[in-house]
Design brief:
The protein is mainly α. It has 17 helices and five strands. β2 and β3 form a beta hairpin.
Length: 422
Amino acid sequence: MLRTFRNVFRVEDLRKKVIFTLSIIVLYRLGSAIPSPGVNIDALNRMVEEGGILQFLNLFSGGALSHLAVFGLGIMPYITAAIVMELLGAVIPKIREWREEGEAGRRKITQVTRYLTLGLALMQSIGLVWRFSQPMEDGTRVIQFTWAKGFVVVMTLTAGMALLMWMGELITERGIGNGMSLLIFTAILARTPFEIKTMVEQTQLKYGNIIYGILMTLVMALGVIVAVIFIVQGERRIPVQYAKQIRGRRMTMGGSTYIPLKINTSGVIPIIFASSVIFFPTMLAQFIPALEGFASWVINGAPYFILYSVLIVFFAYFYTYIVFDPFLQAEQLKKYGAFIPGIRPGTPTAIYFSKVLNRINLPGSLALAAIALLPAFMFYFYGTQEIPFGGAAVMIIVGVALETMKQIEAQLQMRHYEGFLK
């Protein structure tokens, strides 16, 4: 492992990419520590600690929301915009045409995603300013609202989101790994020490033994990480055979390969979607007090466990069929003279793909729901509210770490060096 790290910095091009990526991450953390002007930080911290949607957003902003920093919105508006574009691509023919245009089409989709991100960031900034301008139970306000102060905070948050989006694209273009994924990875990782400390303290208060809290944290962390790696890496390989073809006067031999179908094709998207849906009543209750009772019922006890699980399974199936279209994949195989042994090309191949997807999606989505519900189970049975190794956080941390390691390994192997993964 140490020799591999030494090889990373021995290759000049790879060393520059790694240093550039780390420099952007440092700038991101600095921007996450600079608060917006005119904000009562103590009152904001108390409001975020109450839980709900603000605590969820604070996790994905790396704690920047707890003091309304320049990067207080985090990367979530961009992720939401990218997900919306993926969903629209399944129903709007124009976006589907852009996907098929190659690089030029991807640039168009990226440009629309940027505009959509800025629109979402502006709306979220206005909503946060309005929410923080309302008095708390003790009468204090996070923001003593004036039109000038509100305008400055909204512009600061929106401009911070635009800068963060640019930084993520710079990492993708000039650094190593996917920029947006690395930024959200950094944000979640930055909160991990605080959440571990909080969990140990809460367990100690409940059981009077700090050793028990530390052991429980370690066991849970290792168990969840192993489960996430199993889900992220698990795949069903569909064998594919290419028919012999005559090109000019030569006959090319048909090769064989396979199509990897992930156990969890949809990744962390179902968790993010389900979290957004289940916390939507809580967000509405901040504007409509009459919904507070219903919102409290949805996010507590058995209704929360049941509804959250059903939503994750539903979105896992829904998003998988958007990412992997069986009929489109079957048509592509037929176009290039490929077939699955024992399955006729065309519609029978598409039906076969659908059957396989349905079979592997069920255990994959149920396992995803179990991992996502771990924080809720720990809160319900142990009285702990901060669980560092559960749900979307671990899926993102492990997934991004594995993907980045694979990219570095590919760069090393191109230069005849050993990689991380043996």
